[in-house]
Amino acid sequence: MKRLKWPSWLPIDPYILLLLGTVGLAALLPARGTGAEVASGASTAAIAFLFFLYGARLSTREAMDGVRHWRLHLTVLACTFVLFPLLGLAARGLEPVLLSHDLYTGLLFLTLVPSTVQSSIAFTSMA
Question: Are the beta carbons of 111 and 92 closer than 8 angstroms?
């Protein structure tokens, strides 16, 4: 089977183009009602499947080697669930001077949300 080749004169990465297309399609045709519930379940299943596939490709030896790095795991957990939220709360002092209330609220949200799927996969691969 022939594989399609991306034109070399196009400066945009195909993944970025597809990602933008997906966001545009979702903006034009948002899921509503039962479709939204199905889409939510499908996205949860897709995320679980991503982590399963990543874990399934590891050998038992690689998994056990990762478990032995408990100090690294504790450091990542402490940064994610202690340090980042404390930095977000500490940024409150910058609110009237450097940050508007809405910007501070967004920054606080970013520091309190543990992570995204992509960074979780990156942390998993590094561990």
Answer: no
Nearest to 84 by CA among 56, 59, 49, 108: 108
Residues 6+ apart with CB under 8 A from 30: 36
Task: Pick the range with the lowest mean pLDDT from 41-45, 64-68, 71-75, 97-101.
Answer: 64-68
Buried b (16+ CB within 10 A) or exposed e, 1-19: eeeeeeeeeeeeeeeeeee
pLDDT in tens, 34-57: 988 998 899 889 888 988 887 788
- Angle at which helices 34-56 and 117-126 cross, to 10°: 10
Q: What is the distance of C-alpha 87 from the center of its chain?
A: 20
Give the CA count within 13 Å in the CB-facing half-sphere of 118: 0
Lookup result for tokens 């933008």: 20
Please tell me the distance from the alpha carbon of residue 66 to that of residue 73, in angstroms, as a whole number: 9
